[in-house]
Amino acid sequence: MKSILDIRLREGDPYFKYNSINKILDQLKTKTYIPKKLGLLDKEITRVSIPPNYNKDAYSYNILRVIGRARWSSVSVRGNRLYDLDYLDSFQKNVLSFCIVRSMSIILINNKKTVKNSVIAIEDGGNTNNLSLIEECAKYTKRIVLVTRNFKNVNNIRSHILLNYGVSPEFTTNINDTKGIDFIISDKAKSYGDIGVWYLDSFYEPEQFSNLAVNDVLLSINDYEERVSPELLGALLKSENNISKRVEDFFDSNKINIEEIRFGKKEIDINSY
User: Fold this and answer.
1) Which of 110, 181, 192, 234 is the most buried (most CB within 10 A)?
2) Are 48 and 66 in contact (CB under 8 A)?
3) Is 45 a member of any domain?
4) Domain-embedded: residue 74
C-alpha cells in the first residue's frame, strides 16, 4: 500500500514570523492525524496540519520539516496555492489545471456559454507556473488572452501553445485593453470588476466585488468518504504505471466528479449568477 502525505494549513489567525523561537513553536503546533486507507486505490493517507504562519520562508521550512526523510509515494500540499505550486509535480499541476478549467466550464455553461465560444484571459500569462493552465485552456478554446509584462516568457509560451495545440494566444500588458472577456484565471491579488475570476491566490479576498469569484473546488472519488482537493487527488492518482494517461481518463475511469465550487469556506451558488 502506497503512503500519501497530505499537508494542510491549520485554521486560525495568520501570522508572519520566522525566527528560531517560532521554528520551535510552529513544530509544537504541527499535528499528525491517524492515517486513513483508500482501499480501491491501494493508498494510505497521512494528514498533517501546519500552523497558519504565512511567512513564505517559515511556510517552506514547516513543509520540508514535515516531509522529512520519509519515503512518501507522493505529497499533497494545500495552503497558499501560489506557494504550494513549488511542491506539486507536473501531474498534480495538470490535475489542478483540469479542475480549474472544468469548474470554469460548469459556471459558463450555467450562464448559457461554453469554454469553446468564450474568451478566457490568464494573468500572469507569462508565468511558467501557469503553463499547464494555458495548455488546458487551449484544448477547449482558441480564444485565449495572456495578460503579462514578461515579454520573453510569453513569446516562448505562445510558440509552445501554437506548436502543440494549434492555438495562437493573444497577449496584452493591460487587462483593460481587451474587450469581451468572459472569464479570467488570475494569480494576482486584484479585483476585476464584473468579470468572473478563478483566483489562484487562495489567501486573497477582494474587499468588494460583484463578480463571480472562485478559488477552490472539492471532488468526490469512489470509496473515499471525504471530498478531496485537486492537489490531493493528483497525489492519489499518480503512479509510475499509468502516469501517461490523460487526466480526463482518470476522472472517467475512477468516477471522479466536482462536488463543490468554492470561494474560501463558502460554496458558490452558481445559479445566482
Assistant:
1) 234
2) yes
3) yes
4) yes
Tell me the residue range of the domain where 23 lies. Answer: 2-87
9-68 residue pLDDT tens: 998 899 999 999 999 999 999 999 988 887 666 788 999 999 999 999 999 999 999 999
pTM over 0.85: yes
pLDDT in tens, 90-147: 999 999 999 999 999 999 998 889 999 999 999 999 999 999 999 999 999 999 999 9
Which residue has cell 504565512?
A: 54
CA 190 vs. chain centroid, Å, equals 18
Give the chain as a DSSP string: -EEEEEEEEPPS--B---SHHHHHHHHHH-EEPPPEEEGGGTEEEEEEEE--B--HHHHHHHHHHHHTT---SEEEEES-HHHHGGG--HHHHHHHHHHHHHHHHHHHHHTT--STTS-EEEETTT-GGGHHHHHHHHTT-S-EEEE-S-HHHHHHHHHHHHHHHS---EEES-GGG-----EEEE-SS---TTSEEEES-TT---SS--S-EE-EEEEEETTEEEEE-HHHHHHHH--TTTTTS-HHHHHHHTT-EEEEEEETTEEP-GGG-
Would you say residue 97 lies in a domain? no
**How many alpha carbons lie under 13 Å from residue 207 in its C-beta half-sphere?**
0
- C-alpha cell, 123: 494573468
Kindly state whether residue 22 falls inside one of the protein's structural domains. Answer: yes
Q: How far is Cα of residue 52 from the mean position of the Cα atoms in its chain?
A: 19
